[in-house]
Design a protein that fits this description.
Blueprint: H1 2-24, E1 31-38, H2 40-43, H3 46-49, H4 51-68, E2 76-86, H5 92-97, E3 110-118, E4 124-132, H6 136-139, H7 146-160
Helix pairs in contact: 4-7
Amino acid sequence: MRAVLVSPLLAALALGAALAAPLAAFAAPAVSSVRVSIGPGLAEEADQIGDRDLDSLAADLRRTIERRLPSARDGGVLTLVIDDARPNRPTAQQLLTTQGLSMESFGNGGATISGDYVDAAGQRTPIAYSWYGDDIRWARHSSTWHDAEDAFDRLARRLAKDQFSDAR
């Protein structure tokens, strides 16, 4: 009777170990610091979008990444650049400088992020991610940077799974 009970238990443990091994390959990278900057193309649009909004986007991306990835003193360095960002609604600066816009104006937004991760051993891994909303019906109920923030969260989830690019 004992052999009958023990063998399913051993089989379950062996199966669990077999399934856990591939998951270790998808472990989140340990990060000691996250650096976020605005790309040159997007920085050229600062007078239209507003410096405050761009600073807020960079801070939001950093916060989102730091929340998702484990922090380690001896971890790697994650450097990210927001190459493009489109708001769902006009920014304060756009409302001031563009006639005909109102907070009722809306559209699809999103962001493109690039960068690299340099692990503790010095190995560099490039990062490339882009996501833009594709359904205007949802944009009506969104905040100014909703789709860009969604892109940041999607990137953070991918990085936590050790997926560094859009390539599927």
